[in-house]
Amino acid sequence: MKHEGSYVALGLKTWNTQIDRADKLFGGLSSEEILREIAPGKNRLLYLWGHLTAVHDATLPLLSLGERLHPEFDVAFVSNPDKSRVDLPSHEEVRQAWKRVNAELRKGFEKMSGSDWGQRHSAVSEEDFAKDPSRNRFAILLSRTNHLSYHLGQAVLGRK
């Protein structure tokens, strides 16, 4: 692909922009504000932030960038709906996990070449990848960026 590097650069720029927006939005919330629901009876901002952290954490092994740092977040923020558990990680625990996970992703992304992004991700078999090479690491970056954007749109509602 002739423009592979520019596509990857654009994808990473978009990812970083969304991470920066999330940092600003969630990082500016007090311990009281983080418990607001995005709408009456809906997820709280803490749950959305924890959910995003868990999904980003799961991206590390998916892109062969290392092991998960916080697999315990899945029970609180992925496998169960908000308010179904009383033992959620604290505001500060989510903040620290978010920073750590995204720092590891950025570090891994910096080491990846354009051709690395075109390789299969760890959730697809070699046989399936041969049939559909679009199931690659770059597709994961795009889908995770879209996921982040979607939840940031929800989180904005909770700020009001």
Write the layout of secondary structure elements.
Layout: H1 4-27, H2 45-62, H3 73-77, H4 91-111, H5 114-117, H6 126-131, H7 137-159
Helix pairs in contact: 1-4, 1-7, 2-4, 2-7
Average pLDDT works out at 94
Q: Could you describe the largest sheet, including whether it forms a barrel?
A: none
Low-confidence stretches: none
Taken in chain order, the helices and strands follow as HHHHHHH
Tell me the β content: under 5%
Computed over alpha carbons, the radius of gyration is: 16 Å
Question: Count of helical segments?
Answer: 7
Work out the helicity level. Answer: 55-70%
Distance between the termini: 45 Å
Structural class: mainly alpha
Described by the principal axes of the CA atoms, the overall outline is globular
Would you report the number of β strands? Answer: 0
Description:
63% of the residues lie in helices and 0% in strands. With 160 residues, it is mainly α. It has 7 helices and no strands. It is globular, with a radius of gyration of 16 Å. Helix 1 (4-27) packs parallel to helix 7, helix 2 runs parallel beside helix 4 and helix 2 (45-62) packs antiparallel against helix 7.
What can be said about this structure in brief?
The protein is mainly alpha-helical.
Features:
7 helices, 63% helix, 0% strand, globular, 160 residues, single chain, mainly alpha
